[in-house]
Amino acid sequence: MQKNAQRPLWQIYLVFLAPMVLSNFLQSLSGTLNSIYIGQMLGTQALASVSGMFPIVFFFIALIIGLGAGASVLIGQAWGAREPDLVKAVAGTTLALGVLIGLVAAVLGSVFARPALIGLGTPVDVLDEAVGYSQVMMLIMPLLLVFVLFTQLLRGISDTLSPLLALAVSTSSGLLLTPALIRGWFGLPQMGIRSAAVAGLVSTALAMLFLALRLRHKASVMAPDRTLLMAMRLDWSILSKVLKIGLPTGLQMVVLSLSELVILSLVNHHGSQATAAYGAVTQIVNYVQFPALSIAITASILGAQAIGAGRLERMGPILRTGLMINACLTGALIVLGYGLSHWLLGLFITEPLARAQAEHLLHIMLWSILVFGFQAVIGGIMRASGTVLAPVFISIFCIVGVELPVAYLLDARFGLEGVWMAFPVAYLCMLFLQTAYYRGVWRHKRIERLI
Predict the structure, then answer these.
(1) Is residue 451 a part of any domain in this protein?
(2) CB contact at 8 A, 377 and 326
(3) 296 lies in which domain range?
């Protein structure tokens, strides 16, 4: 931390942020490549089947993201205070809970896949394929969720390079395995739409193995050694502090995922072409939204480390630098997204009408990701100190009280386009209310270490 304190904040941000953004890029690329393979090799109906699964997977990942957000703040504070034993204790407890969530996801997700997809209004012509894909995808959730959680915990100790390299292993493996399983190359069985899920299982396992070997070679405090394994138990004194931050953050993510389910059900009523357009637009938006979220995560971790090190005077500059980087990086990606939208969406959708529809939807809301990024950075700074209830309440209010009602009203007035208009409205409300709380309340609170 002392070494970092001697460098300009924007450099610290970029050193931390660049591997994380590239990690998110590879993570999105993995899903994108699978969607391209399925859309081009199996057709639009198959893509619609996979698209219907996005919110369900996100529901479980949302819980893990919340858990990791709480733990990474505590790990960041412990790391800033130079207490490696405390880092391991927090990591072990969090991973133990992550394993339990993964097992629950596997059981419930595989058993209730069909009722869930029917409840979402998945088009009948793709229902059976969607159920088959969903059941396989749910069975690999324990491994996937633990991998996602572990990469989040590494950020607490400022290690964003290891997750990047592990994701490179995962993405490259998936790039080879998915088409091979679709076509039955190299003597492999043809698995059709299930190919992406099976390839995901193998590639995630390889990435986890690589990550474990790399961390042990580096003698990292987060290496999966005997000490970490012994720490993998539910220590309630630590878990209560993790959940104090993680549960509200997880609740926010769950509400977000539930709102996506509602949005998807609205989209599904417009037919399988609209569902495919939803999946394609979601892929493009992810490439812009994930970097914006990465900036917010960076702000939160740097803020937590500053609190742990007793450098509270750095909180304001950390916030301002995060807002500036969001304006530059997210803004540039938005401009690129608009300029290449026709070509990008053509990677997923082959039918001209569906492609034109998807491009129109993307143009409606893409700009609002910049606003989303600003409010996320403000929330991330407040989360670094353990202040989560008010920012989460604001986000939930904007999702439930603004986004969903506006989506219903505008859907009735404008059709499918109206659903997408609700996103900018909600993000603008979030930014206004988060800024008001930060300036009016949080800046006047006393900030102390949580652990």
Answers:
(1) no
(2) yes
(3) 9-444
Dmax (CA) for the chain in angstroms is 65
- How is residue 100 written in tokens? 């339990």
Identify the three-state secondary structure at position 332. helix
Kindly calculate the radius of gyration of the chain based on its CA atoms and give it in whole angstroms.
21
The number of angstroms, rounded, from the C-alpha of 208 to the middle of its chain's C-alpha atoms is 18
By the 8 A CB rule, do 53 and 194 touch?
Answer: no
The answer as to whether 391 is a domain residue is yes
Tokens of 312: 């509270």
Return the residue matching tokens 């961390």.
Answer: 215
Do residues 267 and 278 touch, judged by C-beta distance below 8 A? yes
- Spell out the residues 6+ positions from residue 53 whose beta carbon is closer than 8 angstroms to its own: 117, 130, 133, 134, 137
Its pTM surpasses 0.70? yes
CA distance 150 to 94: 9
Q: Could you identify the residue written with the tokens 């992810």?
A: 286
pLDDT higher at 274 or 124: 274
Sequence-ordered list of residues with C-beta below 8 angstroms from that of 133, at least 6 positions apart, any chain? 49, 50, 53, 193, 194, 196, 197
Task: Look at residues 214, 140, 129, 142 and name the one whose alpha carbon lies nearest to residue 177.
Answer: 140
Indicate the number of domains in the chain: 1
Q: Contact at 8 Å (CB) between 379 and 391?
A: yes
Which residues make Cβ contacts (< 8 Å) with residue 113, sequence separation at least 6? Answer: 131, 134, 135, 138
Asked whether 210 and 165 are in contact (CB, 8 A), the reply is yes
Q: Burial of 163 by CB count in 10 Å (0-12 exposed, 13-18 middle, 19+ buried)?
A: buried
What is the rounded CA–CA span in Å between residue 292 and residue 124? Answer: 36
Cα angle 149, 153, 155; round to 5: 125
Nearest to 31 by CA among 11, 51, 61, 5: 51
383 in a structural domain: yes
> What does the chain come to in residues?
451
67 three-class SS: helix
pLDDT in tens, 182-228: 888 877 888 777 777 788 889 999 999 999 999 999 999 999 988 88
Residue 195 phi, psi dihedral angles, 5° rounding? -60, -45
The encoded tokens of residue 36 equal 């391209």
- Is residue 2 included in any domain, yes or no? no
Residue whose entry in the numeric block shows the structure tokens 């499918």:
416
Q: pLDDT, tens digit, for every residue of 360-386? A: 889 999 999 999 999 999 999 999 998
Two structure tokens written together for 318: 């950390």
Indicate the DSSP class of residue 340. T
Residue 261: phi, psi to the nearest 5? -65, -40
